[in-house]
Structures are given as C-alpha cells and as structure tokens.
Amino acid sequence: MDIINGIAASHGIAIAKAYQLSEPKLSFEKTIIEDVDREINRLEEALTTSQGELEAIRNHAQVQLGADNAAIFEAHLLVLRDPELISPVKDKIKNEFVNAEFALDETANVFIKMFEQMDNEYMKERAADIRDVTKRVLSHLLGVEMVNPSMIDEEVIIIAEDLTPSDTAQLNRKFVKGFTTNIGGRTSHSAIMSRSLEIPAVVGTKEATERIKNGDLVIVDGFKGIVYINPTIETISDYKEQLRKFEEQKMEWTKLIKEKTVTSDGHTFEVAANIGTPDDLVGVISNGGEGIGLYRTEFLYMGRDKLPSEQEQFESYKAVLEGMEGKPVVVRTLDVGGDKELPYLKLQKEMNPFLGLRAIRLCLKEDDIFRTQLRALIRASSFGNLKIMFPMIATIEEFRQAKAIFEEEKNKLITENIFITDKIELGIMVEIPSTAILADQFAKEVDFFSIGTNDLIQYSLAADRMNENVSYLYQPYNPAILRLVKLVIDAAHKEGKWVGMCGEMASEELAIPLLIGLGLDEFSMSATSILKARALIRQLNKSEMEDLANAAIQMSTVKEVVQAVKSIITD
Q1: How far apart are CA 439 and CA 529, in angstroms?
Q2: Is 502 a residue of the active site?
Q3: Which end of the chain lies in a sparser environment, N or C, as judged by fewer CB atoms within 10 Å?
C-alpha cells in the first residue's frame, strides 16, 4: 500500500480503479500552403466546431452545476470569438502562406507568454483560458479526439495533472466516484465544481500521475486529503464502513428539508442559497433553502453581445421571487470586472482589475446600466420578498450615491403608475476591510450587511486565493478575519440590522460554530451544502459557541483557532 497526501478539496470517500486522464498529443509541422482560402476555411470550421462543443459544455454545466460554475466557459467562448486573437491567425495564413495549425499555435503562444509574464494573477488565468481553447481548436484541425470524461462508462477515480473546468463539468457522477490531481487548491475552479457535483476530491498531491497507474485500486479520502494506492484489505474494509456511515448520514440530512434551522438551545438561524439563474431554484427548494442569500445577476449579462433589456431582467427577477414564495431573496446588483468581463462594454484593460473599475464602481460610472437594472428589480419587487445588495462598497459616499439612484428610479416608476412595494431593503456586501472597520457608520444607513468572505480574506491578507504559491494565506480562521466579522456583526446588531454571509466560509464545518458564536444571522451557500449545515447547527449550543468565538478572537494563529473548534465539534 502506498499513500499520497494532498489538499482535501471535496468531502467524501471514493473507492474505485484509477483512470489516468492524459491529454492527447497535438503534434504538427510547419508547412507552406498554396490555397489560402481553403486553409482559412479549415480554421473557421475548427472554430465553429469548438464553439458548439463549448456551448454544449456550458449548457450542461449550467444544469448540473449552476450558472456560477458555468461562467468559466463564457470566458472560453470569448477567447474563441476574440478578433485580437483570431484576426492575427488569419493574417499569418494570408501573409506567410503557412498552415492553420502553425499560425494558430504561433499566435496563441505570443499571447500566452505575454499574459504569463505579467505579475497580475488574473492575467495569468487568461493565459490558461487561451491555452485550453487553442488545444481544442488544434484538435479539430488535426483530427485528434479530445479527452472526453463524459464517455467513461465504469466506476473510476480520475487521476490527472489537473482537471480543466470543461473536464470537471463533463464528469458523470454515476461513474466518476472521485478524482485526484497533481496541482490545484481548495479554491481552484475544479475544486469548487467538484463540491457542487458532490464528488470526493484530493488536489495538489504533486505526484499522483507518477505514482498511480491505470487500473490501480485507489481510495480517495476527501475529508483528510489522503489518497491510498492499492490499499490493504483492512484499509478497504475500514473505508467501506466509513463510506456506509457517510451515506447513512446523508440520508438522515434529507429528513431536515422542511425543518427550521435551530440550535440545541432554541436559537433560530437562516440557511439560504447562492444562485446564478432562475434554473438554480430547483436545487434550492429540493435542499430546503430558507431563502436566497445571493443572486448573482451578472450571469444575465454574460454570454451575449449586448446588455440585457429591462424586460429581460424583470422576467428573471420575477421568476426567482415568485419561485421562492415569499421567502427572502437578496439580489446583488451587477458585479463585473476582475475575473468577469463583458466584451461588449469595451472597458479599458487594467493592470489590476480586481482593484479596478468593477462592481458598484462600474455601475456608478455607467449609471444608465445601473438604472436599467434597478428599474427591473423595483418592478419585480411586488412578486416576492426582495432585498437589494450593492457589491464592492468601499465608502459611505458610494452607498449614498447608489441609494439616491435607487430612489430616483423608484419615484419615476411610481409616477408611471407601476405597482411596487415599499418594503425593499437596501444592503451592501462587506468585502473590503475599510468597510468592515467602518461598519458602525454604515450600519446607521444600510438595512443589512452580507459578508463576502472570498474577497474579504484575500484583501485583508493581501493574498490571491487562486495563486497556489500563496494559497496558505487564504485563512478563514485567521483571528484577524474573525475580528473583522465580529466588528460587522456587532455594529449591525447595535443598530437593529441583520447580517448574512455569502462567501465559501459560510458553509465550512469549522467556521459555522464560530459564526454562530459571533452572532451571524444568515448563512448562504451552494444548495448542496444546506442540509449538512443545518444538521450541524442543530447540534450546537449558541451560548457555548459564544464562549468559543470570544476565545478564538483572542488567539494568535489559525492553528490555535482550528484546534479549539475541533475540540468542540468532535466531543
């Protein structure tokens, strides 16, 4: 028996044969061509075929994983259509009389090297997008079949250098019992998607592809981040028993679908869901979601060549509000920029887009876009329990400006005799340290806070959570983060306002006891995490968790905090 350690990316246990997912060889030579038109036609056909495949993968991902996880394929489609990439390829064919494979590869490599040499991690991710898309187009030019995980028809555990988002989106849960990769972290795209699919995963092993052979019996322990190669009979027996108990536990969780989220000493909390489109409601309802804590409206704007109309937006918001039947729905206004681009806006390229013109900053600058969205939301408000949340708020002035535009559009609709409700709450996402520190002042003016921990953590610790070299600094349990969370919650409660959390931290088993103790009112997460979170909360005593949280914020290290929480939840 051999053992490899990695990062526990998705909880669960998988026992099956290893399936090495290796990339096809895309080798070719530079050739001089005579028929330029024919060569360009070959390129166009390969681009069209690739586009069809990516659209199919995106649509499949949207159904299986939700719009948030499907968004990565919008980025791939944008690369495929980008004239800055495709036009130079065609020019190279025309001017140098070279074959399409060579022209594409040469041109793409220029862009890849340019982006890889930039210090900005967002730009480096664009290099990965170009590389993935180029491989797909090259495979069609060469007539080489791409790896297709969806064709797997027996129970396996996938072993790979890395799983691209398109690979992960095509995994069939019936046959793919788990996966392990050489690279990646807990917040990588493949890790997040594996959790949505509920497939156990261990990533960042560094040597899985070298040490695991096709057909080896493998156990993936997605709780501890351990991979066993050709385990002993005793180890297999032990893990089969653990797997049986885990499946029984999941069946028990389903009994909580219609139950309230109440601690053992009678304190009620709300467990809501994060969604991207109205299609995601099915998962929310089937998992007993008590509301929508985050509706990411940017997916209405992506994968198209122009802005969505007011009526289109109205229909989407109305569908979600009606579907939730009076339960609260928190809608985040347009949050693009950073890793989410809208090419039809033709925004200026920025050296550091995560700190640039994004979210509310873009909406206040391009207020016609903002006003259209607000009108659609206000019109839809009469169909349910709507709460509107502004993202990336850094100053009080920004909130006041956004609220003023909201009031202007609301008054216009009233004069147009359009029926609306007066009960729309306006809140902000707390994802910038300055906002958390000034929460006592914000709390006097907003109706609620929702803490976006993904950004708050990386901004507070100055560490890109997608960068493997500094991934150790993505620390939800850092006492500094816990203190910021406490600042926000205490400030809100002093003014009689409520606080939710919509980042990854809200669904973490180790975070939930701390957040209960800190006084968080609403937990929002992926729909598949709701019942597990509810089951945990029902076992906790709020007063004991308050003692735990008060002790944790006085600690010095993450290790101390984690040990303190584990001592409580494992007793």
Answers
A1: 29
A2: yes
A3: C
In the residue annotation, 189 being an active-site residue is answered as: yes
**Mean pLDDT of the 40-66 span:** 84
Q: How confident is the model at residue 79 (pLDDT cuts 50, 70, 90)?
A: confident
Asked whether the beta carbons of 259 and 487 are under 8 A apart, the reply is no
Residue ranges of domains in the chain = 2-23+148-252, 36-142, 257-569
Choosing from 11, 76, 140, 189, which is the catalytic residue?
A: 189
Which residue would you say has higher pLDDT here, 153 or 232? 232
Is residue 448 within 8 Å of residue 492, measured between CB atoms?
yes
Pick the CATH number of 2-23+148-252 from 3.10.310.10, 3.40.1550.10, 3.50.30.10, 2.40.30.110: 3.50.30.10
- DSSP label of 308: P
Superfamily of domain 36-142: PtsI, HPr-binding domain (1.10.274.10)
Q: Measuring CA to CA, which residue among 323, 330, 314, 324 is closest to residue 373?
A: 314
Strand partners of residue 15: 219
User: Is there a contact between 281 and 323 (Cβ–Cβ < 8 Å)?
Assistant: yes
d(CA 7, CA 10): 9
How many Cβ atoms from other residues are within 10 Å of residue 320's Cβ?
Answer: 23
Distance CA 424, CA 570 (A): 42
Identify the top-confidence range among 17-31, 123-137, 382-396.
382-396
C-alpha–C-alpha distance, residues 135 and 500, integer Å:
42
Q: Which amino acid is at 106?
A: E
Q: What's the angle, vertex CA 113, arms to CA 110 and CA 118, rounded to 5?
A: 130
Looking at residue 144, what is its pLDDT? Answer: 84
HSE on the CB side for 162, CA within 13 Å?
Answer: 14
Taking the C-alpha atoms of residue 511 and residue 497, their distance in angstroms, rounded to an integer, is 22
CA–CA separation, 41 and 18 (whole Å): 40
DSSP 98: B
User: Residues in the chain, how many?
Assistant: 571
- In this prediction, residues 307-335 reach a mean pLDDT of 96
Active-site residue identified among 76, 140, 363, 502: 502
| Interacting residues of 514 by C-beta distance below 8 A, sequence separation 6+ | 477, 482, 545, 548, 549, 552, 561, 565
How does the average pLDDT of the chain come out, rounded?
A: 89
**Cα distance between residue 458 and residue 169, in whole Å:** 26
Q: What is the pLDDT of residue 124?
A: 60
Residues 172-212 have pLDDT tens digits of 778 999 999 998 777 666 777 777 778 899 998 999 999 99
What pLDDT is attached to residue 189? 64
283 Cβ neighbours under 8 A, 6+ residues apart: 66, 273, 527, 528
pLDDT digits (tens, 9 = 90+) for 444-461: 999 999 999 988 998 999
H/E element holding 192? helix 189-197
CATH number for 257-569 (one of 3.30.2290.10, 3.20.20.60, 1.20.1560.10, 3.90.230.10): it is: 3.20.20.60
- Stretch 261-271: mean pLDDT: 97
Spatial contact of 504 and 529, defined as CB atoms under 8 Å apart: no
Proportion of the chain in helix, strand, coil states, percent, rounded to 5: 55, 15, 30
